[in-house]
Amino acid sequence: MRCSLLLLAAALWSPAAAAQVVVETFLPPGSGIDDALVLGPDGDLYGSLFGTFPVPGTTVTRVDLPGTSTSIYADGMDNSNGLGFTDNGDLYVVSFSDATVRKVTPDGTNTLHATAGSGSLSGLLVHPVTDVIYVTNYTNSTVDIVELDGTLTPFLSNDGSPPELNGPVGLAVDDAGDLYVSNFNDGKILHVSGMGELTEIADLDGPLGNTTGFITYAAGSLFATGIGSHVVEEISLPDGTVTTLAGTGAPGSMDGPGDQAQFNGPNGIVPSVTGDTLFVSDYNTDAVRLIIRSGVTAAEPDEAGGAGSALLPPSPNPFAGETAVRFRLDVPQRVTLSVFDGLGRRIATLTDRDWPAGSHALPFSGEGLPPGAYLVRLDAETGTDSVRLTRAR
Questions:
Q1: How far is it, in rounded angstroms, from Cα 227 to Cα 375?
Q2: Which of 54-58, 109-113, 260-264 has the lowest mean pLDDT?
Q3: Residue 212 has what DSSP assignment?
């Protein structure tokens, strides 16, 4: 289980109505980054080079933050694409053209981890709570789970009824642990329920084409790159209201206010740890841009519960097999985490010991439990909190 820098960024992003948006060039054209972006466990920025199809980009570049020095972190891919880090520092990289996933360990060892067998893999996401690795198959229009043994388990596919996956690329997770997918071919943004059902929440049919690249999440909104429309969009949740965050729609490299700045095929996107900045890769120029929201300030997460401790939303919820029960501690303390059935009977104690400050997650299996409502209760030295948990049929 993990609490990634990406989830931390989502918690710290505090929207401000009067925020001003400014675009700046962070890395100039030719940086060697034109595709997916991710923050590593070391706080540095990592970006992939897709290249100009069918001429493959083969590398992943590391950018030393807050500076701009770069170095090749991994090589040997065939159109490098989606990226994701696990808790132990392993980097998983999608190789688009040969439909494989490679694993790069912290010592630099690069090995073939998984092979799709057909199609072309595109996006990759390591779930910030459950550590499940999801990968999108652009050609087959599916989403699969990358198992630790290297097998790919089908997760989402089309059943013939709308909304459907249509060249899926981007993946993102919100504060509740819900999954979202972006379609490259038709610009639709889809929400994935805990039962794997798809719901369309937005349609980013840009003026220069539907093509939508990657998505990311921060404090109540999704942010999506429009490769064909040359803009970066904000999708407010849960209503799906779409507004253009930055870009005029004309391709270019002009910096400046968000409504005057230009992008040239914006593609990868990820928020900074402090949450006041978005890193965006330009596919057509290999530049990395910054979208800076002045007036957006870092703030402590506003979670329910007593001061010093809180239960966070379980994920998934409702759940069928296993879910992750999450809690946050502002100071080290003893914690008892219990699960009760609808009659108030304690059916499980997930922990009863001292825990350090920080965000934590514990697995809870529904095996053998009847469908229905359950209650998770946290008893800590700083207070008591509870959250409803639903076992699906």
A1: 44
A2: 54-58
A3: -
pLDDT, one tens digit per residue, over 134-178 is 999 999 999 999 998 999 999 999 988 899 999 999 999 987 778
Amino acid found at 176: A
Give the DSSP H/E element, type plus range, for residue 11: helix 5-12
How do residues 171-208 score in pLDDT, each as one tens digit? 999 877 789 999 999 999 999 987 788 999 999 875 44
Q: CA triplet 131, 135, 137: central angle to 5 degrees?
A: 170
Helices (H), 322-378: none
- DSSP reduced 3-state for 352: strand
DSSP class of residue 12?
A: H
Tokens of 135: 């990968």
Are 4 and 128 in contact by the 8 Å Cβ rule? The answer is yes
pTM of structure? 0.73
For residue 32, give the DSSP letter. Answer: S
| CA angle, 297 then 303 then 309, to 5° | 115
Q: Which two tokens stand for residue 63?
A: 């950018």
Residues with Cβ within 8 Å of residue 236, at least 6 apart in sequence = 220, 221, 242, 243
